[in-house]
C-alpha cells in the first residue's frame, strides 16, 4: 500500500488521540486496588478505536460502501419491476439466440469442412488435420470460434495414425452444442423467475406449445392435449425431482435423455417399435391413459384401492396396496391420474434409483430408513396367502430372505438400506 503525506498525518493524529485516551484510562485505574483493567475498559477502548478508525477511513454506520450481493425478486405488488425484469430477460435471451449458428451458417461450416478435409480417407470417413482445422476456423467466422479450440480437437481425436479427427464427428459435436444452447434458451423463456428452474406449470406450457411442432403427435385430439401434457411432464418430475420440491433444474432437463426422446417425435418415419418404447409417443400416452380409464370402473375419474388392485396381472397384494395408499398423495382415499402416473413409472422402471426410492418408501413400514426381517416378512405373508389361493406350493420365507440378502450384499448383514439396493 502507498501512503500519501495526508494519510500519514491523519494516521498519526488518530494514533496520538488513541494513546491519550488509553493513558487517561490507565491513569484513572492505577492504584494498589486497580492494577488490572477490567472488561468494561477493554470495551471502551474498542469503541473509541472503531470511532476513530471510521473517521479516518470516512466510513459511516450505514455500510453504504458494501456492494449489493443479493437482490430480491420483485413481488406481485411491483408490476413495473416485474415487467422490467421480464423484458430484460427476453432481450438477453434474444441476444444469446442471435449468437448461435443458424441453418445457413451450419451449411457453410459443413461446406468448409468438406472442402478442407485432409486425405487419405479413414475407411469411408473424411478426416481433418489440426492445420486444416485452423484453416477452416479462419474462414468460418466469429460465431464458430468457440468450436475451433485445441481442447475440442483433442477430445475428438481417435486412433488415427495421422492425428486427424473425422469431420462428421466434429460437425455432429457442433450441431449438438447448438441444439443444447437453443433448447436452453427455449426453456429459459418459460422460467418465469429467471432462477434456472422450471415449475410444473412452466414445463406444462413448454410441452403444450411444442405439440404442434411434433409430426408424430399430429393425430392427437385437442381434448387429449391436457392428459398428454400431464403424462409427459410427470416423467420429468418423477425422475428429476425425486424429493418433490416442485421444480427441476433446466440443466438437469438438458443433461437427461428425455428431451431427446420427446424431440425424436419430429421424425415422421419413426418406427412402430420406437414409438411403443418411447414414453412420450402418442401410442404410449394413449396406452397409459387407456389403462387408467379401464381401471376406473365407477367412472369418477379416480382410482380406489379395489380398482388399482386390477393393475397389470392383478397380483398386487392387499398389504402392498394399503401401503401405496398410505404413502402416496390421495384424495379421500382415492388416487388421481397424476399419482397413478408416478405409480406406473415406478413399476415400469424398478431398477432406476428414483423408482427404488418410491418403492422403498412403501416397503419401509416402520419408517426406520431400512428394511429388516420384519419388513420383508410383513409383505411376504400376503404373497404366501395368494400362492395358497392359487394352489401353488408355499415357499419358505427364510429361503427367500437369505436369497434377497445374498443378492443385495448389504453393508449391514441384518438390514437393507435404499443405498444398498441402488448399489447392487
Automatic annotation (TrEMBL):
CDD domains per UniProt: PPP2R3C
UniProt source species: Littorina saxatilis
Transferase is among the record's keywords: no
Biological processes per GO annotation: cortical cytoskeleton organization; microtubule cytoskeleton organization; regulation of dephosphorylation
Record-given protein name: Serine/threonine-protein phosphatase 2A regulatory subunit B'' subunit gamma
PROSITE patterns: EF_HAND_1 (PS00018)
Database matches in InterPro entries: EF-hand-dom_pair, EF_Hand_1_Ca_BS, PPP2R3C
Location in or out of the cell: Cytoplasm; Nucleus
Location, primary (coarse class): cytoplasm
GO function terms (MF aspect): metal ion binding
Biased composition (Basic and acidic residues): 24-39
Alphabetized UniProt keyword annotations: Calcium, Cytoplasm, Metal-binding, Nucleus, Repeat
Region of interest (Disordered), ranges: 24-46
Superkingdom of the source species: Eukaryota
This protein's GO CC annotations: centrosome; cytoplasm; nucleus; spindle
Amino acid at each position: 500500500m502507498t501512503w500519501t503525506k495526508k494519510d500519514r498525518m491523519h494516521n498519526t493524529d488518530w494514533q496520538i488521540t488513541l494513546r491519550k485516551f488509553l493513558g487517561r484510562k490507565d491513569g484513572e485505574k492505577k492504584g494498589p486496588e486497580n492494577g488490572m483493567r477490567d472488561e468494561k475498559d477493554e470495551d471502551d477502548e474498542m469503541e473509541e478505536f472503531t470511532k476513530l478508525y471510521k473517521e479516518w477511513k470516512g466510513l459511516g454506520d450505514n455500510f453504504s460502501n458494501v456492494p449489493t450481493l443479493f437482490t430480491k425478486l420483485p413481488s406481485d405488488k411491483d408490476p413495473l419491476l416485474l415487467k422490467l425484469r421480464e423484458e430484460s430477460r427476453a432481450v438477453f435471451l434474444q441476444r444469446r439466440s442471435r449468437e448461435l449458428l443458424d441453418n445457413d451458417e451450419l451449411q457453410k461450416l459443413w461446406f468448409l469442412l468438406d472442402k478442407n478435409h485432409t486425405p487419405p480417407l479413414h475407411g469411408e470417413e473424411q478426416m481433418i488435420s489440426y492445420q486444416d482445422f485452423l484453416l477452416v476456423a479462419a474462414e468460418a467466422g466469429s460465431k464458430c470460434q468457440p468450436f475451433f479450440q485445441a481442447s475440442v480437437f483433442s477430445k475428438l481425436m481417435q486412433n488415427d495414425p495421422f492425428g486427424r479427427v473425422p469431420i462428421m464427428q466434429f460437425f455432429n459435436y457442433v450441431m449438438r452444442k447448438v441444439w443444447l444452447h437453443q433448447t436452453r434458451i427455449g426453456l429459459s423463456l418459460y422460467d418465469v423467475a429467471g432462477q434456472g428452474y422450471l415449475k410444473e406449470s412452466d414445463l406444462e406450457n413448454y410441452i403444450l406449445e411444442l405439440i404442434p411442432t411434433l409430426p408424430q403427435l399430429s393425430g392427437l385430439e385437442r381434448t387429449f392435449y391436457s392428459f398428454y401434457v400431464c403424462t409427459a411432464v410427470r416423467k420429468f418430475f418423477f425422475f428429476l425431482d425425486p424429493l418433490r420440491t416442485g421444480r427441476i433444474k433446466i440443466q438437469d432437463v438438458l443433461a437427461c435423455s428425455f428431451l431427446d426422446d420427446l424431440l425424436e417425435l419430429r421424425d415422421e418415419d419413426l418406427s412402430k417399435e420406437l414409438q411403443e418404447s418411447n414414453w412420450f409417443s402418442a401410442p404410449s400416452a394413449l396406452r397409459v391413459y387407456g389403462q387408467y380409464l379401464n381401471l376406473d370402473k365407477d367412472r369418477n375419474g379416480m382410482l380406489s384401492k379395489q380398482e388399482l388392485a386390477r393393475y397389470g396381472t392383478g397380483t398386487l397384494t392387499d398389504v402392498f396396496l394399503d401401503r401405496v395408499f398410505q404413502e402416496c398423495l390421495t384424495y379421500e382415499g382415492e388416487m388421481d391420474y397424476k399419482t397413478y402416473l408416478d405409480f406406473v413409472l415406478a413399476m415400469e422402471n424398478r431398477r432406476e434409483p428414483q423408482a427404488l426410492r418410491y418403492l422403498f418408501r412403501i416397503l419401509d413400514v416402520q419408517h426406520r430408513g431400512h428394511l429388516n426381517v420384519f419388513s420383508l416378512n410383513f409383505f411376504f405373508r400376503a404373497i404366501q396367502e395368494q400362492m395358497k389361493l392359487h394352489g401353488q406350493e408355499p415357499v419358505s420365507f427364510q429361503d427367500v430372505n437369505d436369497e434377497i440378502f445374498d443378492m443385495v450384499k448389504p453393508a449391514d448383514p441384518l438390514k437393507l438400506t435404499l443405498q444398498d439396493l441402488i448399489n447392487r
